[in-house]
Amino acid sequence: xxxxxxxxxxxxxxxxxxxxxxxxxxxxxxxxxxxxxxxxxxxxxxxxxxxxxxxxxxxxxxxxxxxxxxxxxxxxxxxxxxxxxxxxxxxxxxxxxxxxxxxxxxxxxxxxxxxxxxxxxxxxxxxxxxxxxxxxxxxxxxxxxxxxxxxxxxxxxxxxxxxxxxxxxxxxxxxxxxxxxxxxxxxxxxxxxxxxxxxxxxxxxxxxxxxxxxxxxxxxxxxxxxxxxxxxxxxxxxxxxxxxxxxxxxxxxxxxxxxxxxxxxxxxxxxxxxxxxxxxxxxxxxxxxxxxxxxxxxxxxxxxxxxxxxxxxxxxxxxxxxxxxxxxxxxxxxxxxxx
Amino acid sequence: xxxxxxxxxxxxxxxxxxxxxxxxxxxxxxxxxxxxxxxxxxxxxxxxxxxxxxxxxxxxxxxxxxxxxxxxxxxxxxxxxxxxxxxxxxxxxxxxxxxxxxxxxxxxxxxxxxxxxxxxxxxxxxxxxxxxxxxxxxxxxxxxxxxxxxxxxxxxxxxxxxxxxxxxxxxxxxxxxxxxxxxxxxxxxxxxxxxxxxxxxxxxxxxxxxxxxxxxxxxxxxxxxxxxxxxxxxxxxxxxxxxxxxxxxxxxxxxxxxxxxxxxxxxxxxxxxxxxxxxxxxxxxxxxxxxxxxxxxxxxxxxxxxxxxxxxxxxxxxxxxxxxxxxxxxxxxxxxxxxxxxxxxxxxxxxxxxxxxxxxxxxxxxxxxxxxxxxxxxxxxxxxxxxxxxxxxxxxxxxxxxxxxxxxxxxxxxxxxxxxxxxxxxxxxxxxxxxxxxxxxxxxxxxxxxxxxxxxxxxxxxxxxxxxxxxxxxxxxxxxxxxxxxxxxxx
Lengths: 339, 491
Prior knowledge:
The complex is a heterodimer of chains A (339) and B (491). Chain A has 339 residues and is an alpha+beta fold. Chain A has helices at residues 27-41, 124-131, 153-159, 170-177, 182-187, 241-245, 247-250, 252-258, 260-264, 276-281, 285-288, 307-310; strands at residues 2-14, 21-22, 47-57, 59-60, 68-70, 106-116, 140-141, 146-150, 164-168, 194-204, 223-240, 323-327, 333-338. Chain B has a three-stranded antiparallel sheet, with no helix packed on it. Strand 11 of chain A pairs parallel with strand 7 (256-261) of chain B, so a sheet runs across the interface.
């Protein structure tokens, strides 16, 4: 059974993937929301698909600012603890304006989320009721969403309204990393798809321990322990839902494949390769300057990514639209993936 | 009140004091001391000298001034960056250091000589060396690749140093991936330290070019760090500050693990040093306003010009990259433009400039050697054609996305609207060789004409066009549609 939560609007959710990357599609939080929803319903969720309809990071520009600023809010506080010498939130400061400020970035957006419940059956109203008690990446839902149930994935896809499916692009990162610096792979454009970085997991930096002071314990939730960790940044790509709905008609790659035949009757001899004789004639001072690759032949010169990042292979990529989560074999890394 | 008045109307004492102040000011200038510190030291000299002046005769006053001068010089040395490498074991030794006179033959204005003198004085004493090692290890134990400070500046300090054998985990960006790829990750200080020792350690280990420490100290720090960090190192991890997040992640059998993500400012520095605006969807943004920005990143602030000389990364702590995401109405905007205005060729500015320059060369060559000139023209245009075709495909993609979200009646209406239009508009809306679409021949010819009209309209910085004529157009149209056809068939 598949459950589709359609076009729910969320306000002021966390857009901070990590300190350096802000991107308003919190895929990790969405997968964890799916898991938490399943846990509350008593029906384990086997996979979560996320569809982006709209998302905007809250930014502002101020006179004299060097660039765009994240719209940060300290909140209109009624109460302010102003005890001196460290008593207040802002340490020794006595003015609310100097309340200690920490990095944050928020966004507003509209998403759809699909849950793969396997053989389990749930009532859409139960999903809606549970969902309204929860948050999406720390943001509040702006109203009860429409929840529908479908028996097949095909029906589910037909039920999703226009938007972009969030797909795992780890395979693209693997290819690009073979010959590129990590920063270029994760921060720069990849040709042929809309690809951005996102946090897709966490890697433990310390041993798991139950002895640390201050471990967060939640009711009857059984805790294995606590560890300090680093975030794992991966690549995700946005693919329009119509490509899944009407794959043969609209897929970009199919256009070229289907239309190979009509080109064959255009039998032009000199259309492609340079005539060797002409090149020979062309060897001279006036021609040498352009004998090498032209400046805009270089992929970097027109905003495209480097060589290996152009090598798109549309037939590759995850076979499912659903994200699953799990731990690595050595138990040190938690990842979400589309398999 | 005038200095002469305050020195008991003794012109000799007043002159001696003025001379001592000038000497100290000159010395501080040579040592490049910070103006605020210099002012404080000079003021300190004046205050202490004036306190002595009533009690002492002129000769004794002179001797007292010389001693005061020496003491203040030693005080300056204690806190000066050039001598922080020659660390004293602890702050308790400050008094002894300041009160110990330097050798009489030492020229205080000779900075390297003074630094060497201090280095030699400590190098031979085992207890001093042991103390230096202990203090350096203490400083090293306050560093970390990952610290709690970027998460919350008031959180209890945590520092985690990765072992040198740390590996990445597949196609994901982690600190381990950088180490595996041979990139050094800069260390950061986990807590504020005003003794300057952590600064010396950071300079030695982060290989900052402007390090002030002497080579012997750098070697010592590197050696001690290699021992201490041989298998990684962590400190402060026995406590989880309530200001730090704890994320609950599902583990096996319905249990959970609590993880506290920490940030590596070294990884941050690496990313910002390598990010190139023109190659990215991302925009640079800044956290917070002026003084409310996060602080305590003095060590990382020195990253400037680290990896790509032309790109300063000053102010890393407050920087972030915002990645925009696609919007559904973009596709509809593209379709609306095609419906109402028709397709418009768009090549990047750099490409347009290059096309213009290359075509000028082509025109010059055409006068002397038409064969070479024509071949040059083909080379120029083939590169532009590739980009052109990519743009057309992208637009077709957007149109498909937009059409897919319309019902059949509206789709048919759009197709009818462009039925009598150019081949490229029909291709964008209806595809190729379909009902209402464009044929391959029509499309290639149309694309060639579009590219030509684009070339004919190109202008340089003086607003001059290439001056292409009908003959040029005829020559271009003899080969360009064929080249486009081949390009398309190869994809």
